């Protein structure tokens, strides 16, 4: 895969195939953690909306790391200070896309 | 001082997935020891153990619970559900605030440790699941019992190797007897039948490769087991007011330390614990009809324990019965005293004495009535449960028929 293919959005705002995969995988991981169907997880959902508690969050991050073979810079002691924004599903997906891109850079 | 009774019992172990099955196995002299089914068993020199077979966590725990509970925690919860269910107690308000869970455990989440050591050392992985610590800490079982049943009083784990459960139940007994708590949940659990757990025990050269034959002249070591036993200890008036069924009364206990050797048992330390429990219960030695022995099947324990009983009881030692049920359920280490207390309840309540199975040859150094191979009917007023741990830590409980 090329860097540009992994890097996300193209000029017209549509997603590339690789990023659709990332989004779907991240949503699947979060949905599994929340015991929901992926279709019930929207990009605007917060983890709190989905009923994911602090242990569920670290388990989701672990599952994301395993799925994408990346290191997520997240410290549960200071989530807002982390480079990884967990404010909603969309920000998590964007964070994963960035990490995957960096890893393949 | 308050009187303390047992109003609920629960277990899961190699000879039964609940109390009824376990007592039936005691009566039938069933052996739960078999070939070990663990990963890399071919690299072990000890290939037998008393594993809990046919245990399926699906249906008993949801997916998140299964991810968060080590096997020893699951065992504790299953036993606690049975015990608390039998007691009929529900923990709300003041009762919840004063009731806690004190459980024995020695190894913590050994299967969790084993799997994750493999992952980082053997497979070279640099990432472990986030629940490794909450799964392996040895207070996990007590904590999850408190969470499932809303127990908000004193809750902790007691770890004294093979005496952990007896020390834990002694703590719970003291709390109820003193009036500190009207009810305590107590007992213990263990699950170390994994490659690393068995390998560690192999190193000590005290394990049998073929069978557990306590007090038999041809005994050649202990056999590890796994599982849990949990009880509801309740203040007598509290139990009577609500019309609870009483299984037995806990009348006394004693704890001693040998202060001599990290592995070799001491006759004096054991005898002081036995005599201490009888004195604490304000009984005469001749009141004791049955002892559930520590009876590990090692050369050292069984002769030392027999000598300690002879010293503590004098001539009455030749009259009382003493059996080791480890011959059936194996040595549950930190959970063993809890499962063995069931044999004491059976003795005082049902008048049936669990046998020492696998008994083949009399040993002059263990010349007591060890109820060889077959269960026996006998009226027993008082039963003792012995536990003598590595480290020289001893704890003995006394139960009386209610």
TrEMBL record, chain B:
Keywords: Cell inner membrane, Cell membrane, Membrane, Nodulation, Transferase, Transmembrane, Transmembrane helix. PROSITE patterns: KS3_1, KS3_2, THIOLASE_1. SMART domains: PKS_KS. SUPFAM superfamilies: Thiolase-like. Pfam families: ketoacyl-synt (PF00109), Ketoacyl-synt_C (PF02801). GO terms for molecular function: 3-oxoacyl-[acyl-carrier-protein] synthase activity. GO terms for biological process: fatty acid biosynthetic process. It is found in: Cell inner membrane. Coiled coil: none annotated. GO terms for cellular component: plasma membrane. Residues 1-401 form the Ketosynthase family 3 (KS3) domain. InterPro entries: Beta-ketoacyl_synthase (IPR000794), Ketoacyl_synth_AS (IPR018201), Ketoacyl_synth_C (IPR014031), Ketoacyl_synth_N (IPR014030), PKS_Beta-ketoAc_synthase_dom (IPR020841), Thiolase-like (IPR016039), Thiolase_acyl_enz_int_AS (IPR020615). Proposed to synthesize NOD factor fatty acyl chain. Involved in the synthesis of a highly unsaturated fatty acid moiety, which forms part of a lipo-oligosaccharide that is responsible for host specificity. Belongs to the thiolase-like superfamily. Beta-ketoacyl-ACP synthases family. This is Nodulation protein E. It comes from Pseudooceanicola sediminis. The lineage of its organism: Bacteria, Pseudomonadati, Pseudomonadota, Alphaproteobacteria, Rhodobacterales.
